[in-house]
Amino acid sequence: MGRNRNGLSDGECLDGLLGAIEELEMELADLQAGPNELNVFEVLGITNTEIRHSNVIAWLMRPGGSHGLDDAVLSRLIERSGGTPPEDMRDFRILRESDNIDILAASTKNRMTLAIENKVWSGEHDDQLARYQGIIERRYPGWEHLYLFLSPFGTPPEGEADRETWVPIDYRALLGAIEMALEGADVPAKARMLIDDYVGSVRRHIVGDESLQERCVEIYLEHKRAIDLIMKNLPDTTKTVHQYVREWAHRLPGVEVVDGCSRGKQYVRFRTKSLEERFPPVDGSDNWGQRHYWFYEMISRPAKDGVGCDLSLQLCFHLPKNAPFGKERVEACHTFTDAFSRGDGGTFHGTWTGYCGYVAYFSPGDLDYDSLAEACDIAWDGFTQRERDAISAVCY
């Protein structure tokens, strides 16, 4: 083992950290403890739901909206994207999910657009940023186009070309724009309550409390050697879960694992023979190069604690306008997903519809194939029962 600049070995650094854990936990508990206030976003359980965040942001961007902020939020977001806010912004229209673009602000008078792609905890897919840019430029030729890529920590887009066009912005900067807009504004009481709840919810669940972050930095610097050793030697839980899930899926009877679109360490996608009889392949491929336009998927995501993994099971149907099947099949897909979800289904990324169920959380210390397979079996049994019930409800 090596030694740090104070002459302590790695083992002694770890012992020092262990000795401080009880005190640190008490300090963190005090910092995290806050007033038990009612927050509408937390009551509704939508603090991490992208579509709800986009709805609120679009509302706040709307000039002359019921929020009482006029065009202040839109103006600051235009500045953040590198543009110059026009003097008269009253004709800006704020569109939601227009051609799947999360938020699009467009002004005919000023010949300007501002597009915002919002990623709370999900990632990019299907070269979407380039597609959105192409749609906007074809729809509004010769206009000034501005682009923001919003994420919790201001992560740049994955593609090199996208990074040149889409300006990254984090949720802390978004809150700054909202709070600056609030200064001196005549905001109705109900709107002020909603805005305050939104800011508080984002601060607690997405960007984090600043005083807590400052103390965590102090703790890290004080015990950097020991913490770095721990983090360096932690296993990649998400990767292990993905590998176990792939092995589990290949053992399922009556299932075909779609390895061609089970990418990275996050997704394992598969189809059942029973559902394929109901929705057979068609002529023409979807965005994944498949001919079915539907699949089940196991999704392995890093947990918020930074060391564990959250596993979910999802059924997805892709129903774009240009899909090579008729109205009857589209209606059958919707009927099936409604029956499958038992009223709890949803739409993912605009043209994907389906149902998602949480499987389990896995930490590095208690992860083994048998425990994961058991959790997956329980979740899959529930899904196969839903499939049987839903198939009987579809006449197609």
Give the SSE order as H and E letters.
Answer: HHHHEEEHEHEHHHHHEEHEEHEEH
Q: What's the alpha carbon Rg, rounded to whole Å?
A: 24 Å
Secondary structure category: alpha+beta
- In DSSP terms (H or I, runs of 4 or more residues), the helix count works out at 14
Termini, distance in Å? 67 Å
- Low-confidence regions: 31-35
| Strand order, largest beta sheet | 6-7-8-9-11-10
Largest sheet: 6 strands, antiparallel
Shape by Cα distribution: globular
Please estimate the helix content: 40-55%
- Please give the domain count: 2
Number of strands: 11
**Beta-strand percent range:** 15-25%
Overall residue-averaged pLDDT value: 83
Can you walk through the features of this model?
Helices cover 45% and strands 19% of the residues. With 396 residues, the protein is of the alpha+beta class. A six-stranded antiparallel sheet has the order 6-7-8-9-11-10. Strands 1-2-3-4-5 form a five-stranded mixed sheet, with helices on both faces. Strand 2 (101-107) and strand 3 form a beta hairpin. The radius of gyration is 24 Å and the shape is globular. Mean pLDDT is 83; it is low at 31-35.
Topology readout:
Blueprint lengths: L9 H23 L7 H4 L6 H12 L10 H9 L12 E6 L2 E7 L4 E7 L9 H12 L4 E8 L8 H6 L1 E4 H12 L6 H19 L2 H13 L1 H10 L3 H14 L4 E3 L9 E6 H6 L15 E9 L6 E10 L8 H15 L4 E3 L3 E11 L6 H25 L3
Parallel strand pairs: 3-4, 4-5
Antiparallel strand pairs: 1-2, 2-3, 6-7, 7-8, 8-9, 9-11, 10-11
Helix pairs in contact: 1-9, 1-10, 4-7, 7-8, 11-14, 13-14
Relevant terms:
396 residues, alpha+beta, 5-stranded mixed beta sheet, 14 helices, 11 strands, 45% helix, globular
